[in-house]
User: Which sequence fits this backbone?
């Protein structure tokens, strides 16, 4: 097949960080890729998806991250070279197998991509997954450019295969979503299988084996120390007396700020790219060569702690600047930026250099992310708010429908993580004595809603659960999941019927309704409001973007406001569709945005339909 | 090898196609042998949020542009142009859509848009040169609303800020955009270029 990412050695191409990761994996001869999509990691498996025809590898969108890691772990035991991709919070889900895989080792080799999200651009927390490298015992690579994303993925996979251990590739949003030139290396045939040899004293970690394997893991990590010290990804440049020890995207900030200010002579920089096991000799050499050391790392002060430990053990007299001593503006919060790096370096290099300031930004109408025009979630939230108002608590989950939190829909009161709508909702109802309405999407239901639902039935919880089945994994870009219709999935995957699954899990009260049918949704919610126990309403309506792009659905009509007045205003203010416009008190429907879902027409007689594409 | 260092900040509304324009621009720059890095931040922005992206040419490592650093601000929506104005470097250049995509609070009647003339005044005060172009109109004229983004790139190519002109952009459109939308984008590039004259 022809695909830009299969171009020969020497090709130079602008790639997204995530595309570069895919190319790097191909250059290492990856055989199997598993994932659960999640921003900012999703373009990695989606790139592989676009390369499926090449026949070079197997790809699976697993139902959650634990399953993805276990499937790849099994394949790596069988001898395949594997890549597993997920966002940072997904690693929590996969942590159980991860920490034991490092004990057993994986003969085929496995790299786990953890795409972290400092600054919470699209996540519920900004946890630092470099901790997993330390707690599980995983060698760790942290790229800072598209070229390095490719090169480090390849290096990580080759290392994983050589030492037969899982290796962590840790990125952050800025790296996943930057684009830069990448020079391609050779593209070999996929790696050979490493034949499995039964070894009960290695692969079955009963306590007696686990104790031995813990020591084996420590020995393996010790064994690679020399090559970590010699790693081309840990580079020292310059010979100034102010040392900059930088990792992740902070490396790019540091180089740009130094160049922009002509500070090259005053500083030396240690680009710290292979960050675990710790290259202690490299750190010591660097620390001995400078008078002041600034540690630039987003998130937790992990490298900084190590630097303090080395300085203490060797009684080094250098001055250390970082976030542990509260050296402004460095902190554990959010992303670093060129401004933060400038202001951290300037006082150490040039006492007269002015600090840069954040300008006052104009107060303007905000533009928060919002449910699309024609999204059936909006229809459901409208009905829920109308029937339940503030009398109930809304237990939300992870997906587009989290956006139901915004007024006027206001359908999210709490949320922890994937699947928590059901179990946290169960607990809240039991202790709070209040009716709880839970919302969960189809992909999230299969990801980790099913276990909570079994628990809710088993422990006789009281919960009204709405499964918002839009037939795709919408938020992350329409990846396959078991709810996607069979015609779209093709032969490789099997569609699963959510209603049958829910009944099979023991729920006796189950109803199904179409997402644009306001009358039916309101009638069923009114019925279920009066009932007790676990009851599930499945709302089916394809994601409006998916319907247009993949299912090729064309709209047959659009809405317009036939009669201005209180009725039209009421609908605009409570449904708040993105296609509604208001100017000088006149309500209008944008014909370019309206998808013809007809929900507004069911709510207010002031809205009418007109036929045709516009 | 062209060594002029230039930082371009792009901003728009999710769903507009801002990122397609960003990638196209970065690819054309790289095709001219100029080092380039580009970035984008768009977590949930497909759902109507703000989409910010960057193109840095001539030897930068970081894809981030901070306040006061952008040599060029490309605003694909007028309100977002104003919101991003603090990113403009002193003496920078602004090319902006002259149209609004009203945010939810405005459509709900809870907030008001600034006056267009007021935005123009603020932009002129901050920028050495500025253009306001009806990119949605031009996109429709060209045959596809979203090609309006390319109109803004066409306009950028006439400013003399880039080491290449309109033809290079059009080569990039032919090379990188799907054939079925290429024609509309070629038209849009011409319309945008004409709009600065």
Assistant:
């Amino acid at each position: 097949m022809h695909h830009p990412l299969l171009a020969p050695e020497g090709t130079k191409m602008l790639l997204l960080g995530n595309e570069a990761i895919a190319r790097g994996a191909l250059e290492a001869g990856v055989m199997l890729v598993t994932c659960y999509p999640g921003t900012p990691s999703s373009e990695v498996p989606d790139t592989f998806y676009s390369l499926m025809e090449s026949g070079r590898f197997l790809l699976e969108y697993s139902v959650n991250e634990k399953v993805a890691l276990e499937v790849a772990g099994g394949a790596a035991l069988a001898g395949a070279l594997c890549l597993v991709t997920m966002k940072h919070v997904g690693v929590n889900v996969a942590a159980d197998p991860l920490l034991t895989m490092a004990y057993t080792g994986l003969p085929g080799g496995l790299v786990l991509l953890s795409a972290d999200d400092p600054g919470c651009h699209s996540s519920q927390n900004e946890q630092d997954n470099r901790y997993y490298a330390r707690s599980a015992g995983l060698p760790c690579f942290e790229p800072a450019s598209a070229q390095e994303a490719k090169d480090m993925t390849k290096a990580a996979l080759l290392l994983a295969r050589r030492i037969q251990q899982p290796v962590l590739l840790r990125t952050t949003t800025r790296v996943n979503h930057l684009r830069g030139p990448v020079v391609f290396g050779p593209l070999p045939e996929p790696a050979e299988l490493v034949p499995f040899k039964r070894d009960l004293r290695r692969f079955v970690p009963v306590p007696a084996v686990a104790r031995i394997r813990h020591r084996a893991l420590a020995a393996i990590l010790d064994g690679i120390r020399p090559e970590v010290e010699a790693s081309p990804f840990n580079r020292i440049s310059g010979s100034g007396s102010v040392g900059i020890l930088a990792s992740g995207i902070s490396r790019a900030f540091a180089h740009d700020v130094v160049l922009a200010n002509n500070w090259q002579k005053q500083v030396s920089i240690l680009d710290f790219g292979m960050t675990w096991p710790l290259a202690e000799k490299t750190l010591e050499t660097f620390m001995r060569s400078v008078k002041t050391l600034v540690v630039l790392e987003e998130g937790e002060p992990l490298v900084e702690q190590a630097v303090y430990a080395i300085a203490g053990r060797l009684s080094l007299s250098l001055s250390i600047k970082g976030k542990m001593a509260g050296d402004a503006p460095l902190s554990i919060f959010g992303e670093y930026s060129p401004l933060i790096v400038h202001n951290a370096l300037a006082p150490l290099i040039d006492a007269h250099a002015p600090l840069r300031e954040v300008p006052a930004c104009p107060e303007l109408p905000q533009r928060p992310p919002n449910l699309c025009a024609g999204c059936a979630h909006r229809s459901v939230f409208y009905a829920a708010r109308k029937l339940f108002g503030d009398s109930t608590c809304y237990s939300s989950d992870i997906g587009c429908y989290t956006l139901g939190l915004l007024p006027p829909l206001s359908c999210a009161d709490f949320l922890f993580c994937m699947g928590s709508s059901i179990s946290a909702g169960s607990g809240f109802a039991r202790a709070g004595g209040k009716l709880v309405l839970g919302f969960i999407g189809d992909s999230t239901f299969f990801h980790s809603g099913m276990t909570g639902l079994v628990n809710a039935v088993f422990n006789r919880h009281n919960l009204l659960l709405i499964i918002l089945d839009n037939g795709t994994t919408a938020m992350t870009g329409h990846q396959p999941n078991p709810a996607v219709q069979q015609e779209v999935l093709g032969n490789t995957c099997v569609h699963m019927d959510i209603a049958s699954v829910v009944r099979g899990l023991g729920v006796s009260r189950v109803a199904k309704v179409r997402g644009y049918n306001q009358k039916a949704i309101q009638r069923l919610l009114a019925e279920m409001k009066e009932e007790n126990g676990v009851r599930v309403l499945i709302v089916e309506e394809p994601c409006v973007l998916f319907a247009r792009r993949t299912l090729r659905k064309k709209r047959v009509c659009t809405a317009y406001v036939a009669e201005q007045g209180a009725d039209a205003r009421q609908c605009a203010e409570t449904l708040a569709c993105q296609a509604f416009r208001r100017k000088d008190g006149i309500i209008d429907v944008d014909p370019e945005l309206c998808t013809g879902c007809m929900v507004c027409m069911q709510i207010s007689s002031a809205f009418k339909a007109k036929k045709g594409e516009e | 090898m062209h060594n002029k260092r230039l930082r371009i900040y792009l901003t728009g509304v999710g769903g507009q196609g801002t990122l397609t324009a960003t990638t196209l621009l970065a690819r054309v720059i790289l095709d001219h042998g100029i080092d380039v890095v580009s970035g984008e931040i768009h977590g949930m922005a497909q759902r109507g949020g703000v989409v910010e992206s960057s193109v840095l040419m001539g030897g930068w490592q970081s894809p981030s542009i901070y306040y006061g650093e952008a040599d060029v601000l490309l605003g694909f929506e007028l309100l977002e142009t104003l919101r991003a104005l603090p990113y403009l470097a002193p003496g920078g250049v602004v090319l902006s859509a002259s149209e609004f995509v009203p945010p939810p609070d405005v459509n709900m009647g809870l907030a008001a848009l600034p006056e267009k003339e007021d935005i123009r005044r603020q932009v002129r005060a901050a920028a050495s040169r500025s253009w306001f172009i009806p990119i949605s109109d031009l996109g429709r004229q060209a045959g596809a609303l979203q090609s309006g983004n390319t109109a803004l790139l066409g306009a950028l190519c006439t400013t003399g800020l880039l080491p290449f002109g309109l033809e290079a952009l059009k080569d990039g459109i032919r090379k990188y955009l799907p054939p079925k939308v290429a024609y509309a984008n070629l038209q849009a590039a011409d319309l945008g270029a004409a709009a600065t004259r």
About this structure: DSSP finds eight helices and six strands in chain B. The radius of gyration of chain B is 16 Å.
